[in-house]
Amino acid sequence: MSHRTDALAAAGSGVRWQPGKLPDRRGRPGTRIAWAATLAAARGAALAPAHLRFRPRAGAPRAFHCFVLDCSASMLDGGRLARAKGLLVGLFDAAARERAEVALICFGAGRAERRFGPAVPRWWNERWLEPVMGGGGTPLTLGIDAARALLAQRARRRPGAPRSLWLLTDGRSDEMPARPAQADEIHVIDFDDAAVRLGRAERLARAWAARWCLPTALIRA
Question: What's the CATH number where 59 sits?
């Protein structure tokens, strides 16, 4: 499946944000459900009331979501990078509907660079993703350090706004960077779908006290 097809599926999925400053903030009944955070909280289990997360009420500070995309050579296997791109387009589209601000950091081939933001994505986002090519090693620490600096900058400039980090990776790295302290909430989206999974992304999520999930959990049927 092409990443454009994946993008359309993700964009139509009704992905919503969990805006709370603390990882366990659920919002109040009567607001719209934040599906991305709800499904991430369930971690693949059957949904229960305790998993529900809600969108903020009017007047809440604008959320910031920092996406970190693994563009290393292993992400080319089995179309992982293409699926990650498609999911990102859908998530950016959801951010635009919520007027949340986002940034995109890509890492691979020994470097990390910011490709977008921070800003509210206001139009079709494929042009930001098409130039992102995979290859080389997995400089996970470089990618996370770039996100760490950006999150710290946002914390100084807008201390009242919630900040989330989203890492999209197959975890094919021996590096174990420290948890970015300025991220109120972290989601690790695990693209390791090999016959023998290494489980490194899941271990990183546990070390960070982050929410771990598979990409399929972010797309509602």
Answer: 3.40.50.410
Write out the residue range of the structural domain in which residue 44 sits: 3-218
Question: For residues 94 and 16, is the Cβ–Cβ distance under 8 A?
Answer: yes
In DSSP terms, 114 is beta-bridged to: 105
Distance separating alpha carbons of residues 101 and 99, to the nearest angstrom: 7
Give pTM, 2 decimals. 0.74
Q: What is the pLDDT of residue 52?
A: 67
CA torsion, ordered 119, 84, 134, 154, to nearest 10 deg: 30
Quote the number of domains for the chain. 1
Measure the CA dihedral 88/91/93/99, to 10°.
-130
**Helix (H/G/I), strand (E/B), else coil: 165:** strand
